Amino acid sequence: MQLVAIDLETTGWEPASDRIVEIGAVRVELADDGAVRLGRAYATLVDPGRALDPTITRLTGIRDEDLVGAPPVGEAIAGLAAFLGDDAVVGHNVRFDLGFLAHAGLEPAGALDTAELASILLPTATSYALTRLAADLAVEAPVAHRALADATTCALVLGHLARAAADLAPDVLDELAATAALLGPAASRFFGAALARSVRTAWDRRAPVRPALPPRAKDPAKAASLRAARAFAPGGPLAAAYPAYEDRPEQRALAEAIERTFDAGGVLVAEAGTGVGKSLAYLVPALARALGGERTVVSTHTLPLQDQLVRRDIPSLQAALGTDVPVAVQKGRSNYLCPRRWQQLRATAATPEEARLVCKTLVWRASTVAGERSELNLLGPEGALWARISADDESCTQRRCAATRGGCYLERARTDAAAADVVVVNHALLLHDARAAGSLLPDAEHVVVDEAHHLEDVAADAFGHRLEDWRSRRDLDRVARSPLVLSALRSADVARVQRGEGLREEVARAHERAGETFAALRALVVPPEERVRVTAGVRLAEETWLPVELAAERFDDALGGVQLAAQRLIDAGGDDDEVGELTSATKELIGARMAIARGIHDPRAVEIAWLEATREAVGLYVAPSHVGGALRRLLVDRHRSLVLTSATLAVAGSLRFATERFGVADIADELLVGSPFDHATRSLLVVPADIALPHEEQHPADVAYVVEEVARALGGRTLVLFTAHTAMRDVARRLEGLADAGIAVLTQGVDGSRRALLDRFAAGSSVLLGTRSFWEGVDLPGDLLQCVLVTRIPFDVPDDPLVEGRAERYDDPFNEYQLPQAALRLRQGAGRLIRTATDRGAIVLLDRRIVARDYGPTLIASLPPARLVRTTVDEVASVVARHVAAS
Q1: What is the Cα–Cα distance from 548 to 532, expressed in whole angstroms?
Q2: What is the pLDDT of residue 403?
Q3: Tell me: the pLDDT tens digits for 209-258?
């Protein structure tokens, strides 16, 4: 297979011929054995006729003076055209390059994309960036971010992908070649060539074998040997099994408190600082209770922590303790592939995005055991398409998927959970199970909620209601396109046809009423507002609210009509699968009707209703103002014990705010164990007392000045946390001067995904600017991160509907709700700094209100102990640099 690998370096993202600054191309011969032979090369700098963007200089080292005497774009493109001839090209994210070439008047004869091929052939890879992919494949790549070097790397990666393709079964390759036709003829030829090279003669169609869980077995004697005092002792089994084991009194105290709670029952709210090792502290008692015949459910907020517990922490702990307790992970149904729905997409794929997902999952299904979305690296539109093949459909059952190769992954996970003694879930599933009266998870005596500071927000969503334009139309379309409806319309039975037509007419009426309702709701959100709380005052404004009530009443009636017409068709009978699909689709309409009732016609004083609008859509949302009662009723009362733990629950040394929000203030035992790390010596809290206040015009300039000076002093290694995207982008624009020092400015939402930003930051010489999602979950130990700058105290916007509604419960909303919330969030941001016992660095708070307002001591007392230094804007960098350099 003859190709030309190409790469362009450009000064911007928008295709334009006057932005090309370098072209690299190399001839590639892909041999029958997958070996790549490189031929002649074409490389040239290009004079774009404009000054270079600092970003391109930082990435490539190309400067304006390097382009003096370089050919203009037209001449360089003509040279590339002559080099290409009639050959197809291969590139990494090649559509980007093709866009620029098209603007310059060159359209190659076909194109192959190694990023797309890698996504298909390596569906579980952590990254498809060229440099990361080359490293993972052990490709000895030339220097990155120069055109010819990247083109050469692309060609070498292609060889690895060709060999990976040849290892697939012939019938898989045959289908890949056919489906990839939607990706272009070059992709189809690539898989066709792989089929010709394949040495395998048949594909083993048996599903990968899922290891059977060990049987549940009681062992009281072994359970007694796992008491926390012994397990965590300096000479205990953990110390013997883990070479790097450290005796941590804080960890032992937490484990013993959890053990007592499991023994006696009740509720424990426990804060454990960074480095305590919370997971081992609750897993050891959980394994001990399992040997006594009791099940524990462990809930986390994030799927990555869930996977870490099941794949790393628990297996290593069981090996250390000599136990073999059955452990299972269970996730929400949308996390599992539905083989039946996947087959439907496989048979009807009609777009490149659909074809890419089918190809990717076709390869993945040959190796997956769990069928979980988290195993896949889904790109762009693939994430949205996942909803069409996931088990997030009440009609998905083991029986319906039994005829499909691999069986039902969701039911398999539920079966495993029912057989396990420790079940790891996430907060969303835990709370949806609680709302569904325990129908989703197996019964358990004990529940541990890790990352408990997220529980309230997840509960507000789980116990709330929503009416969204896109969701309503999707659900109605699903009813109208249900296989039972389609078969009824094709039936020879006149009565059956009439029922199908009648249902279609009801759906059309509901669509019309939906449009009226959402138009009336949108009229309540006056730009530039994006969120509006639906208060009693809003409801009293008849001119704007009456149209909402009337339209919503008609919409609700129309939804009822759809449900009734669907039931008539269901009652007439039909194929079981078709009846199940329509029944499931109709149930989805219940949520919209509940949101109409609780948000419009029958509001409740204990709930908050609000509207959110974008240019494309509008939604109505309802959430409880306080979830404590529901948590008490649905979690506490249903289990023998409940442990709520996190690194950030206390405000100024008190857990009162957390226990009140959880609804357990009157019954919970409390425990505070600090971090084993020496924060007082190793961290510094720096506040410039002369910095402009956050609302003052000078503040962004002051922030940018401090960030730049600190970054220069530390060679990057700085994380800057913002509370708003607008302020972050403003400061980012003021930091262009850092490029001269070889320091990259990485901005959330501008310079790539969260994973890509963290990877680039870890490579060094960078400043990372982030908003809310970077205030937690960032783990950059050692010298990777030496300074965290917080640009302002993270108070919630007081007129945010949820904040306003929740705060109304308190006599003093600021001090009793908003200040504690800000303190907890500030702790989360500050917690990014010291991640190991040897870390050293500074927290710089660029908001002098913390030392000037009467609430400042509460915030400072909520932070890890650190020496407070008040200084000036001009001195911040030198103070930080001296602290970091101190031994």
Answers
A1: 14
A2: 61
A3: 667 677 766 788 888 888 999 999 988 899 998 888 888 999 999 999 99
30-44, 52-66, 333-347, 450-464: range with lowest mean pLDDT: 52-66
Written as one letter, the residue type at 84 is L
Contact call for residues 90 and 156 (beta carbons, < 8 A): no
Neighbours of 736 (CB within 10 A): 15
pLDDT of residue 205: 43
**Which DSSP symbol is given to 838?**
T
Q: Where are the beta strands (DSSP E) in 277-377?
A: 296-300, 327-329
Question: 608: which strand partners?
Answer: 623
Average pLDDT over every residue of 812-826 = 96
Contacts of 437 (CB under 8 A, 6+ apart): none
Q: What does the pLDDT average to over 557-563?
A: 97
Which pLDDT score, from 0 to 100, does residue 534 have?
A: 96
Pairing state between β 607-613 and 531-533: antiparallel
Please tell me the distance from the alpha carbon of residue 103 to that of residue 631, in angstroms, as a whole number.
59
Helix (H) or strand (E) holding 449: strand 446-449
Question: Is this model's pTM higher than 0.85 or not?
Answer: yes
Q: Can you tell me the distance from the alpha carbon of 10 to that of 46, in angstroms, rounded to the nearest whole number?
A: 10
Angstrom distance (rounded) from CA 646 to CA 781: 20
The separation between the first and the last C-alpha atoms of the chain, rounded to the nearest angstrom, is 59
Going by C-alpha positions, the residue among 161, 148, 145 that lies closest to residue 113 is 161
Give residue 44's Cα distance to chain centre. Answer: 40
DSSP letters along 139-199, please? Answer: -----SSSHHHHHHHHHHHHHHHHHHHHTS-HHHHHHHHHHGGGG-HHHHHHHHHHHHH--
